[in-house]
Amino acid sequence: MTGKIEHLGIAVAHLDEAETLYTALLGAAPYKREDVASEGVRTSFFLTGNNKIELLEASSPDSPIHKFVQKNGPGIHHVAFHVEDIVSEMERLKEAGFTLLHETPKKGADNKLICFVHPKTTGGVLIELCQDDPER
Ligand code: CO
User: Fold this and answer.
1) 123 versus 39: which is more confidently predicted?
2) Which of 1, 65, 118, 133 lies 20 to 30 Å from 90 when distance is taken between CA atoms?
3) CB-hemisphere CA count at 13 Å for 3?
4) Which residues, by Cβ under 5 Å, contact ligand 1, an ion?
5) CA 113 to ligand 1 center in whole angstroms
6) Rounded to an integer, what distance in angstroms lies between the CA atom of residue 54 and that of residue 130?
7) 38-94 pLDDT, tens digit each
8) From the CA of 96, how far away is ligand 1's center (Å)?
9) How far apart are CA 47 and CA 26, in angstroms?
10) What is the pLDDT, as a whole number, of residue 2?
11) How far is the CA of 87 from the centre of ligand 1 (A)?
12) How many angstroms is it from 7 CA to the middle of ligand 1?
């Protein structure tokens, strides 16, 4: 079973500009910036209340974020749900007919183990599962 919405992922074309925009919008600066080379992204995290916003900028031309922004422009990219046990949640979703983008959990930004669920099987929304990474 999934828990609360862990964060909203927003694809941006320029991280510096988007950080300035969101700092003005939320009235608070990002609490973290992190490069995730394996995903080809640079991220920036904001807190608003108990909620988290993740800004994502492509760090290479073959990054999925680069393709997303080219195709759709900047905007909401994914919805991430907290899970306690990502491996069993991945198995449950696979059995229920969802297509997962990876066979095993990957190391994501902000100390998470993550897995994406293909938007073709979720009504057009890219879903991310997030478990706290016990090794970080
Ligand atoms: Co995310």
Assistant:
1) 123
2) 65
3) 10
4) 9, 54, 80, 128
5) 10
6) 13
7) 889 999 999 999 999 999 999 999 999 999 999 999 999 999 999 999 999 999 999
8) 23
9) 9
10) 84
11) 17
12) 7
